[in-house]
Specification:
- The structure is a single chain.
- The protein has 152 residues and is mostly helical.
- It has a domain of 105 residues.
- Helix 1 packs antiparallel against helix 4 and helix 5 packs parallel to helix 8.
- The longest helix is centred in the N-terminal third of the chain and has 44 residues.
């Protein structure tokens, strides 16, 4: 009887160890991918401010943005700031919507009407999933509803 209990405990310990190792390994891989993205994304999207004509590839009309006193640099900065929030959430397995509601920096960022105006243009450069989450946050928090900007 004692031997059976010992064997059962040993098997359970082995299973627990394997599960713990696998979960740790998956978490490490996710963080490594996020770290890689954190290095790559700013290098790429940071260039949008240097190459404002590239916004045309996303359908962003910089002439309209200028009419609202929003510069290419402001749009590029907002994209990079939001990308850093998105990557942080992915690295820590967090939901972006929860992050926007609970993280002071994100709340302050969007509390300014000019940021929300810039979002009308920056949103075209953010993935659909994250764009919907940010749009929903803004709609719920400020009543802002951003329709798709017309094609260039």
């Amino acid at each position: 009887m004692k031997e059976k209990i010992t064997i059962i405990i040993a098997v359970l310990a082995l299973v627990f160890s394997i599960v713990s190792f696998t979960l740790g390994w998956l978490s490490t891989r996710q963080r490594q991918r996020a770290a890689f993205s954190m290095q790559l994304v700013p290098q790429f999207e940071g260039k949008l401010a240097d190459w404002p004509d590239a916004f045309e590839f996303y359908g962003v009309d910089l002439k309209k943005a200028k009419q609202e006193n929003i510069s290419a640099q402001q749009i590029a900065y907002l994209i990079m700031a939001l990308d850093s929030h998105i990557l942080f959430c992915e690295a820590h397995s967090m939901n972006l919507s929860d992050h926007l509601n609970n993280y002071d920096y994100a709340r302050r960022l969007f509390s300014y009407p000019r940021t929300r105006t810039a979002w009308k243009y920056a949103r075209r450069c953010i993935s659909d999933k994250h764009r919907r989450e940010i749009d929903n946050y803004l709609k719920n928090k400020y009543g802002d509803s951003h329709e798709r900007l017309p094609q260039v």
